[in-house]
Each structure stands twice: as C-alpha cells, then as structure tokens.
Amino acid sequence: GAGVSQSPSNKVTEKGKDVELRCDPISGHTALYWYRQSLGQGLEFLIYFQGNSAPDKSGLPSDRFSAERTGGSVSTLTIQRTQQEDSAVYLCASSPPGLAGLKTQYFGPGTRLLVL
Amino acid sequence: AQKITQTQPGMFVQEKEAVTLDCTYDTSDPSYGLFWYKQPSSGEMIFLIYQGSYDQQNATEGRYSLNFQKARKSANLVISASQLGDSAMYFCAMRENSGGSNYKLTFGKGTLLTVNP
Q1: Which of A39, B14, B21, B35 can bridge B77 by disulfide, Cβ–Cβ 3.0-4.6 Å?
Q2: pLDDT digits over A41-87, tens only?
Q3: Contact predicate B33/B50, CB 8 Å
C-alpha cells in the first residue's frame, strides 16, 4: 500500500518568505508527527497530532512555526518569515491506532528546505 | 543528559560479516519502547525493528536482531550477513510510554555504516 507522502520533495526559498510543507499519512493512521533533521544532527521532534488535535506543540522552535491537520488526514507545516537556520529536512511520520501504533512510526521521504 | 547515546559515529564491515551497532539509553520510565531506523543516502527513514521494555525475548526481523540488555540499558542492533545495500545511517530511538509524552520518539545521533565488498 501507499506509504507516507510529502511534498514538495525539495524547496528553496529566500529568507523572509513563508513556506508550506505537506504531509499525507498512511490511510487509517490516526497519529501524525513532524520531525526536523538539521545537517549533522539527529531528529528533533516538532509536533504530534492525534486526529485533528495537536496535544503537544512544545517542540516547535518558535512562533513562526505552525501546523494543522484537517479531516484526520493531510497535515501542513507552515514556516513564516523563514530564516537560514530553518534549513533542514522536515520529516513526517504516521502510526496506526491502538497498540500497533506504539510499536512503530512510518516516515515519509521528507522535504529538504533550503533558505537562502 | 542524552536519552539515547550512539557512541560509534562510523562503522565499517566486510560484506557477509555480522556487525553490531551500539545504543544505550537513559530513562526512569518503566514502560518504554526502543526502535532502530535505517536512513540511506536517499533520506527516507526505514523502520527496522522494535523492542518493548517488557518483552521477554530479543526482537528479530530477518537479518536484524536487537540485543536488549535491560539492566545495562543497552539496545544494540545486530545485522547478520551484511550486504552492500546495508550501507546507511542507522538511528536508535526511544519512546517513553508514561508521563503524557507517549508518542514522540527521541533519537540518537546515528551511526554511519559502510559495508565493504
């Protein structure tokens, strides 16, 4: 079946512009996660959705970052007034409901963001 | 303190040999899960194996096995019969199931494995 998809795969933008990153989770997966992977760093948790609700936004680095999820499916991560330090790979993951969801998170291919 | 420590920035192994990638973790939560992911140069994170803190047996998935030593807080990944396609970055991660944060994974910094022909 189809895995987690993300778009765009690559994004180059100028400092100060806004960007939107999209994630389409695996069908039926109720939980959705955003992570960020900066050059030479591990993965950093950003935000988690259960259905359309985001119980924990504490991983978002600043108020320039926001995310929403509609219809319990697609999620959009928005970065306003981008800065060069926002350059990273943004990874989305999803997991199924119940106990199975505790045992794995399936990741998408990521969006590589470069802020010039 | 780091929750996940991977002490080997890079490892080399000869094709067809076995290799062990180290991972130690730090948690006071009695219920947790440990994960290994593979990230090839293409960038996608591929789930390999999961071990629950209450699981009695070490997890195995094909050529991957997890050497879980609870008292030592280690969860090493063993890859048997290495293949050239195993060359990638490998990440160890933990999920703590209590305290209201039983969803996010905390990752180590990774180990870059190179399989030589």
Answers
A1: B21
A2: 779 999 999 888 888 888 899 999 999 998 889 999 999 999 999 99
A3: yes
